[in-house]
Specification:
Layout (H helix, E strand, L loop, with lengths): L2 E9 L5 E14 L2 E8 L5 E6 L1 H8 L2
Antiparallel strand pairs: 1-2, 2-3, 3-4
Bound molecules: zinc ion.
């Protein structure tokens, strides 16, 4: 599954963060809350996103 997250470095002409594809995604679980860490496919900056359990399973299973 392709995961997208807001990238704080990739900004549009209005200087707002834009949605970019996250690569090298690692899913983490803590206290039954899921999150994804990865890097922006556009600029290589670090990304972070909270996931629902369903999405976490989809990402883990490809
Ligand atoms: Zn970026």
């Amino acid at each position: 599954m392709e995961l997208k997250a807001l990238c704080m470095k990739c900004r549009d002409e209005k200087n707002k963060p834009t949605m970019q594809v996250m690569k090298d995604v690692k899913v983490e679980e803590k206290n039954n809350r899921f999150s994804a860490k990865g890097v922006c496919s556009s600029c290589g900056g670090n990304m972070f996103k909270f996931l629902s359990k369903d999405d976490a399973m989809k990402v883990k299973n490809g």
